[in-house]
Design brief:
The protein is an alpha+beta fold. It has five helices and eight strands. Helices cover 27% and strands 19% of the residues. A hairpin with a 5-residue loop joins strand 7 and strand 8. The chain is globular.
């Protein structure tokens, strides 16, 4: 596993607060897949992160195309995925910028996006677990996200539909 990190200045960060971004890479072999949720939770809780996600390498570049680089121009991402705003256009640092195969949401992030709602989140809760600090590790699909798998793409689309705050797509009313 490789762990790297760097600072993100306030002017480029959600909520106008400087942040530290941590990235961890691990191979996508059977042992790593089995340990992935524990690794994500350990890194996220150890860093006192607001949120985190885990994606296979091949998925990340395509999902990066979701980012709207100009608020003044239309943006249509691939595969019916929603357009997501740059971090500086997200109102709170606790609101996740993206979804992943595995997602870590701190207690603050879960509250910001309205998770869990037992009536609406039964499917997600069946693949989620609570962390020691009150956060959540939520698995969208049983196996690593594959956007060519229609069931995986639908799970991702349903999650984005359920949580419109993710990516700064809504403003408080």
């Amino acid at each position: 596993m490789t762990v790297t990190g760097w600072g993100r200045p306030a002017r480029l960060s959600a909520g106008g607060q400087s942040q530290f971004e941590v990235h961890a890479e691990l191979p996508l072999d059977a042992a790593s897949i089995a340990a992935a949720a524990d690794v994500l939770e350990g890194v996220a809780e150890g860093a006192r992160a607001f949120w985190g996600r885990m994606l296979p390498d091949g998925v990340a570049p395509e999902m990066a195309k979701q980012i709207r680089h100009s608020m003044d121009q239309p943006h249509v991402p691939p595969r019916r995925l929603p357009a997501l705003n740059l971090p500086q256009h997200i109102r709170l640092p606790a609101i996740p910028h993206h979804l992943g195969w595995l997602n870590y949401w701190s207690a603050a992030a879960a509250q910001a996006i309205g998770f869990p709602d037992p009536a609406r989140d039964a499917d997600l809760l069946s693949r989620a677990r609570r962390t020691a600090t009150g956060g959540w590790v939520v698995r969208l699909t049983e196996t690593p996200l594959d956007l060519d798998n229609p069931a995986h793409l639908e799970a991702l689309l349903r999650a984005y539909e359920r949580f419109p705050e993710i990516g700064g797509r809504v403003t408080p009313g």
